[in-house]
Amino acid sequence: MKRSFSFSCLAKNFFLILFLCLAGMLEFSLLTASASDTSPPTGVVEAHSENTTLDIHGKVVNPHGVGLDEAEIRVFAGDQELLPETEAHAAHGDQGIRTEADGTFQAELKVSRDALSNGLKIHISKPTYKNQVLKIAPDDIVKGSDGFLVRCDATVDRMIGPAFWIGVGIFLVAYILISFELIHRTLAAMLGAALMLTISYTLGSFNPEFKILTYETAIKHIDMNVIFLLMGMMIIIGILKHTGVFQWCAYKCYQLSRGSVIILSIILMFFTGLTSAFLDNVTTMLLLTPVTVQIALSLGISPIALLIPEVLASNVGGAATLIGDPPNIMIGSYAGLSFMDFVINMGIVCGISLVFLFIYVKFYYRGEFAKATVTDIKAFTEELRQKYRITDSELLSVGGIIMSIVIGMFLAHGVLHMEVSIAALFGASILFTYSLLRGKIDLMEVLEKDIEWTTLLFFMFLFMLVAGVESVGFLEMVADGVLRLSGDNLVVAICLVLWASAILSAFVDNIPFTATMMPVVAYLTSVIPGADSGVLWWALAFGACFGGNGTLIGASANVVTAGMAEAAGYPVRFFDFMKAAFPYMVLSVALANIWLLIFY
Q1: How far, in whole angstroms, is CA 323 from its chain's centroid?
Q2: Beta-carbon neighbour count of residue 379 at 10 Å?
Q3: If you placed Cys at 161, which of 152, 191, 194, 209 could pair as Cys (CB 3.0 to 4.6 Å)?
Q4: Which long-range contacts (CB under 8 A, 24 or more apart) does 249-253 make?
Q5: Is the dihedral of CA 133, 135, 141, 146 positive or negative?
Q6: What domains can be seen in the chain, in order of their start residue?
Q7: Which phi and psi angles does 60 have, rounded to 5°?
């Protein structure tokens, strides 16, 4: 009884204490609310009749002049922070102002006239960059008709901290996993991207120095133009293969070569390089890979011996024109270079490089080519003619018309200002619909077997990985090194831009690296004597395009070809590709280097 009574008293006292605490908290809240009617909280500008608005705008850039997105801007008048007039700027969970994708920002702030008498302090912060405080003198604040105006432009420097080392470390580990094929390349890329994001939102939430990249940045760096282009062309090819056209093409190529595997390889490389100059090289390899596999199987040799030379030719051919490779499109747009500028300045070198490729392949793959098991060439040609026929001429005719329209849209995309992926998806949707209505194909078969989902996912995660090392400043550091070492020497600048672009493009995607290098090249072109000929733009284009031949993940065409070969049962090993391709990449870049030094 005594124990029960004590517990009852304790419970009563507990609820009494809880009631008194709640009553005290309520009284404190009421007093605080009452006090707020006469005095503002610390750090917030008082709202009274002397308040006005301050329109602040400007741009935040890195040392290369490239705008920084998602940089946070906080404005202080003395010890008081000036808050935006609208709630739009609080969407990120704080009261700061965020820069747009191009580094610009604009906001209307609440401010009292007296607070402006001592000027302003602008705090700029962004993970992996040094925090910066700018002072705005009272004389720099302009009186407008409805309030006050101030412009604030800033250049912020990089900071090498934990995010840099962790981001670069994760990228290198993922690259090692891909290189040594310890796990599938898609899984390795996914693991790396997931680690970067997880660390950014765990450790990075408590300490901004650990923030590698944001989810928004990672998603923004996924080039959906590439993803949708690949998807659309995979659907078109998956449908056209039901017509037997690829097997027929295999027969015609062998017929032209008259049984010589070397000549056959040269025909395929020449056709691939020429086609890649007018289509993008990814599309070209999507079209030719099924044909090449059929040819190689007919000859009794490994398809890899024909596919790797083809993809090397596609990257070289794509460098010859404005529309052949994405870096060329970016450079042409940035520097104001035309289609014919690329043909004149890069076409000859690309042609010479293709000739050297023919010789290189002849010696490198002579052992594999010797394994061809055809003895009676005439009989085998007739056998191929009988075996590889067009099986559905109606579907082939419709598919041919649609493909012609798609290719025409590819060629006119500069005039139409339309992404190539739109043309690919348009053609794929029309051909897909027609084939289904006519009962030519099975919907699930195309979706499950003909679309290489692992390849598409690999590209998406690889874009995220590269976004990580770009966000922490690794690519910018390389660009700074080129800028610092080149000085005023044009020869040194040509060699540095060319070889740095080639080596980096072999190991990271050449699109973000090209974007990082373009302001550097523009600056070097303006300050180095003799660079006004535009030679550094061609050095960057040669390096970015030719460098993609260095490794399996150096160019999109490489990855696509490897994915389709793997689906056909012939996986392309990372080091096997690098062993065959890297020496030729060095050779082709050396040829470009000699050309640039002699003729510019």
Answers
A1: 17
A2: 10
A3: 209
A4: 249/291, 249/294, 250/291, 250/294, 250/295, 250/298, 250/384, 250/388, 251/381, 251/384, 251/385, 251/387, 251/388, 253/291, 253/295
A5: positive
A6: 51-155 (2.60.40.10), 162-220 (no CATH)
A7: -115, 125
